[in-house]
Design brief:
Keywords: Cell inner membrane, Cell membrane, Electron transport, Heme, Iron, Membrane, Metal-binding, Transmembrane, Transmembrane helix, Transport, Tricarboxylic acid cycle. Pfam families: Sdh_cyt. Its cofactor is heme. One of its GO terms (cellular component) is plasma membrane. The protein has helices at 12-38, 43-50, 53-81, 84-87, 91-118. It is mostly helical and 120 residues long.
Length: 120
């Protein structure tokens, strides 16, 4: 069994399962937003919708799901395609640097998203 420190789950099966669960949550959220928009929405009704706690929780679940989904997907791409053999002697350094930059970007995305959703 191959284990990597930067993967989100304990192993490949856990990562695969997290990807599928987060994908379903994102699909449900997308369908909810599409349904909300389809009825014709104006600012007061949109604001009233997003003031409800269950919508904030659902939005937070979607936000965290997108972060986890993106992290696993980008980690898989970086570890599969940015190899030391492909990039020469600096391959490991570039892959780790890329992972850190992506992790920082996802962290900022989550922090800003929580601040927007919950007003903190």
């Amino acid at each position: 069994m191959v284990t990597a420190v930067t993967s989100l789950g304990r192993n490949g099966l856990a990562d695969w399962l997290i990807q599928r669960v987060t994908g379903v949550i994102l699909l449900a959220y997308f369908l909810f937003i599409a349904w909300a928009i389809a009825g014709g929405v104006d600012y007061p009704s949109w604001k009233a919708l997003f003031e409800q706690t269950w919508v904030k929780v659902f939005s937070l679940m979607a936000l965290l799901s997108l972060a986890a989904h993106a992290w696993i997907g980008l980690w898989a791409v970086l570890t599969d395609y940015l190899t030391e053999r492909l990039m020469g002697s600096t391959g490991n350094f570039l892959r780790i640097t890329s992972q850190l930059v992506i992790a920082l970007g996802i962290f900022i995305y989550v922090v800003l998203g929580v601040q927007i959703l919950w007003g903190y």
